[in-house]
Write a sequence for this structure.
């Protein structure tokens, strides 16, 4: 195997790892967002599908910007949790 082949193999392995990590972080972030929204509505479990519509329906003021902010915040939290596993 040539040096180029080894570098290519290493690059592909790193890319797969990065993609898997990114998927896990997004999945954890989305779960945390659902739990955050459920908490604001006094719900438990996975009962939240439509975040802003549900929050607004329960009398909680919610904007897409707030959801985006929470997604960004929870993405960092999810990344830290994944990295600690």
């Amino acid at each position: 195997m040539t040096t180029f082949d080894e570098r290519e193999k290493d690059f592909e392995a790193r890319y797969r790892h990065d993609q898997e990590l990114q998927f896990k972080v997004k999945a954890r972030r989305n779960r945390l967002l659902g739990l955050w929204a459920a908490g604001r509505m006094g719900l438990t479990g996975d009962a939240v599908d439509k975040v802003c519509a549900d929050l607004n329906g329960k009398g909680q003021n919610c904007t897409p910007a707030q959801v985006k902010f929470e997604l960004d915040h929870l993405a960092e939290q999810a990344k830290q949790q994944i990295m600690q596993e």
In short: The first helix runs from residue 3 to 41. DSSP finds three helices and no strands in the chain. The chain has a mean pLDDT of 83.
